[in-house]
Amino acid sequence: MNIKVVGITASILLASTSAFAQSSTVTGAAGGAATGAIVGGPVGAAVGGIVGGVAGSVIDPPPQKVVTYVQQAPAPTKRVVVKEKVVVGQPLPETVVVTPIPDDPKYAYAIVNDQRVIVEPSSRKVIQVIQ
Fold first, then answer.
1. Distance from C-alpha of 122 to C-alpha of 131, rounded to nearest angstrom
2. Average pLDDT for residues 114-128, to the nearest whole number?
3. 105 vs 16, 34, 89, CA distance in Å?
4. Which helix (H) or strand (E) holds 105?
5. SS3 for 44-89, per residue?
6. Are 118 and 126 in contact (CB under 8 A)?
7. What is the 3-state composition of the chain as percent helix, strand, coil, each rounded to the nearest 5?
8. 18: alpha, beta or left, given left = phi > 0 and alpha = psi -120 to 50?
9. How many CB atoms lie within 10 A of CB 89?
10. So what's the pLDDT on residue 41?
11. Rounded to whole angstroms, what are the CA distances from 99 to 26, 62, 105, 122?
12. What does the alpha-carbon distance between residue 32 and residue 52 come to, in Å, rounded to a whole number?
């Protein structure tokens, strides 16, 4: 019984994700719920709402001028190292100092574990890791 439920849930999740990806007019949790309901009924609406909420909350990639600024910014004299892995979508630890981008306050950056990262200042979430 549990295997069937897991299989059905996975199928609905995959179906609602692909259906959501094809729709560009409805986004976020509401769009995901509507798409999920069409694909999988009430269970699909719940799963689609979760998928759509996550997909709808993703921050747009920063403009090229922000990326260029972060690439060219001088590295601090003191190296910042944290135990946690720097992951897109996850906030930086509070111990890491983030520096606002002067021409675009929507973004900030930090250099952590020898990686330059662009973050959303208020949440400290990593938007992009510069390679």
1. 23
2. 95
3. 35, 34, 19
4. none
5. HHHHHHHHHHHHHCCCCCCCHHHHHHHHHCCCCCCCCCCCCCCCCC
6. yes
7. 45, 15, 40
8. alpha
9. 11
10. 67
11. 34, 15, 10, 12
12. 4
Task: Give the separation between CA 59 and CA 84, rounded to whole angstroms.
Answer: 22
Of the chain, the end-to-end C-alpha distance in Å amounts to 46
Number of residues that this document lists for the chain: 131
The per-residue pLDDT for 108 is 95
Q: How buried is 110 (Cβ within 10 angstroms: 0-12 exposed, 13-18 middle, 19+ buried)?
A: buried
**Residue-wise pLDDT tens digits, 16-64:** 444 444 333 344 555 555 555 565 666 655 555 565 555 445 567 899 9
Structure tokens belonging to residue 33: 């719920």
Encoded tokens for 4: 């069937």
**Hunting for tokens 């922000």 — which residue is that?**
66
User: Which tokens sit at 84?
Assistant: 């946690």
